[in-house]
Amino acid sequence: MKLTLKIWRQKGPNDKGQMVTYPIDNIDGDMSFLEMMDVLNNQLIESGDDPIAFDHDCREGICGMCSLYINGEAHGPDRGVTTCQLHMRKFSDGETIYIEPWRAKAFPVIKDLVVDRSSFDRIMASGGFVSVNTSGNTVDANAIPVPKADADNAFEAATCIGCGACVASCKNASAMLFVSAKVSQLALLPQGQVEAADRVLNMVKTMDEEGFGNCTNTGACEVECPKGISLENIARMNREYMSAMVK
Amino acid sequence: MSVLDSKIPAGSLDRKWSDYKNKIRLVNPANKRSIDVIVVGTGLAGGSASAALAELGYSVKAFCFQDSPRRAHSIAAQGGINAAKNYQGDGDSTFRLFYDTIKGGDYRSREANVYRLAEVSANIIDQCVAQGVPFARDYGGLLDNRSFGGVQVSRTFYAKGQTGQQLLLGAYSAMSRQIGKGKIKMHTRHEMLDLVIVDGKARGIIARNLVTGEIERHSAHAVVIASGGYGNVFFLSTNAMGSNVTAAWRIHKKGAHFANPCFTQIHPTCIPVSGDHQSKLTLMSESLRNDGRIWVPKHMEDAEKIRTGKMKPTDLTEENRDYYLERRYPSFGNLVPRDVASRAAKERCDAGFGVNATGEAVYLDFASAIMRYGKEQANIQHLENPTESDIYKLGRDVVEAKYGNLFQMYYKITDDNPYETPMKIYPAVHYTMGGIWVDYNLMSAIQGCYVTGEANFSDHGANRLGASALMQGLADGYFVLPYTIGDYLADDIRTGTISIDSPEFIEAENQVRSQLEKLLNIQGTKSVDYFHKRLGKVMWDKVGMARNTQGLNEAIAEIQEIRNEFYQNVRVTGKMNEFNPELEKASRVADFLELGELMAIDALNRAESCGGHFREESQTEEGEALRDDDNYAYVAAWEYSGDVTKPNLHKEDLVYENIKLVQRSYK
Predict the structure, then answer these.
(1) Which of B125, B238, B413 is opposite residue A85, by nearest beta carbon?
(2) Which of helix, strand or coil describes residue B420?
(3) What is the mean pLDDT of residues B642-655?
């Protein structure tokens, strides 16, 4: 395949940045999108240019590090995958592909396609946990049965990889899907219910402080989420929030 | 006397750990506040250690090269975590988990360490459930289990095919709580580049801030290295792109011994290589072998037809298939340990029965599991005379519920639908049992420098059993290190903050700086990846699944040649004081180029086969690994001599008081 790539280049946080065009040839359909980027970078390095910076690590769709906005969609045109699992067979010969970083006030650009998502970590540090110390003396794991449906729903919410695609896809750059996934997981399990009220209040407060936008129920986040995190989590978080407010 | 003192406590096996814990020194809560501990790495071993140490009251400084501690590669572990809970009532016990692990490791691990691991395994499950880890449950609301290779009980706890993710997010949650309290100072996008030793004790690290490129000094009273394994020395592996040996290698060059570096785990079920562009390999969980059956065509001509696309696997009838694991190992069948399964796949492919274009793939087939589950469901739902396709549909739903994410991953990567046609799989580098030598306290040969998780060598011998890596990482971090480190830190309650202005810190920083400048100044013509791929090919061909004297000698010479060329002709773009992923890669590959040689040297020294280390010269008549206990029942711990080509060997004899060494058999 022969492709034209239009890629966002930005030297640093204070640089203005611009789209730059790169032609690329001999791309195989079995390559992953990031392997295609590797090919481009090797060409740039060997011709003495600065390679394109992009985040990536596990390359199997689970670490949440990769983060490209491809042809106007977070993680590109395929559904249920991260950029690292997107394969070039989803594109056709001669196509022009636009590659941009996540764009959100709370995710400032570090360089080229790399953004700073530490705001997610700060939301987690404000309440995304159960306050239990490591002792080896907690109750036996089977002492509190958990209905299978609750356990399964908690698991579904817990599969969020924290990549930020939801924020990048949202016209308001809202982090509601990310936050609600953690709030839901812990609210559904008996272990998390003890401090459920404080958790939701603190996490929502931090989310607002970090500069994420509001949720207007557009649902773009759910469509683009590589892990299929459901909007039901947002509904559950709203319920949790309301009941915490009146407590 | 050997320089290696394993410090294994006296007493009977089942009392060692509890007696030891009762006697070691403690640090009182007020004093803990004035003691700093550095933890490098935030995977299961590092994340759990950081959280547990901060909960105890120590001031923790944690480091990871990723943009968040939640992304460490433990996240990618799929199948599960072992624990001797015996919830299934199938005869499991602490002793049995201990025994299976020693046997699975082909009798090359320490009894006392492994017993302790088995002992604390049950606590891990309790702890994780208390944190809100959503393990799989059955309809009664209790925890479900499955089976893994090399064992005959169901002791593996799981969360679909994302167990590592859920456990790591549990540890990350526990860390987040301490970060919020200010007890852990988290340094993301930081890479440790050297250890600082003051008066013979590890007192800090030199790290590079990967965003600004700044070289920083960080001090502490003890340093914990939890930086994972070194599988990426092979270039292609199931490790993450950033996984590296740098932290471990740098402490090795400062005096820590590297133990059994040749013990590498080649995992049998990975998606085969598709072309030269390949940047990494993807694992298909071992849990799939609970239900999937592995086979190749029985007749060579069928294999040829399949390779050239003239025949489909589903065209072959049962009698024309060779379920070679079931044939060779009737009692364990498809659930033999990883090393055995990998070698058996290689044997069939080398003999010409491979099923993809390159001849390096075998089938993992779910058709019979789908029908078996379908029939079970039809019974449960009281369906009378269900059709084949009804049964298939019901069974497919069960398989999807168990392994859905893995099947989807396979489909996205290969464009083949594994519900309809068998998966193609082939072995790939997955885990490294070797690592930094540590004593019973998990301390390396450097005072105050601890090594946990995959980065150390201690628990898996020559082959790790499935679902045991997660167990070891969390055991080390939650339940072992927090005790043993206290005994050491008890001497430091009056030390006060360690200065970062001492000559030792300045010198270490200067060394790191000049090393990076050296890489930037070469200004050659080839990219870092070019050298990494060449190294990987030598490692895979000659230090991979099968090794021999000639190949290993050639590998040593070739690695030296690649290393020389690297230092003459690598091109590292960009500058030191900026975000520069190429410089990060170059510095990691420089270390792999040295480690690769040590692995070959170690493999050459160990002229026996054991576990994942298969020397062609040492095999039984049936082609199984043949150990030589008289000459090699020891840990090979290599000390850096100042010259990477001439390491000094120290031996720690492995003493078995509770287990009789026998030829491992899964027949």
Answers:
(1) B413
(2) coil
(3) 97
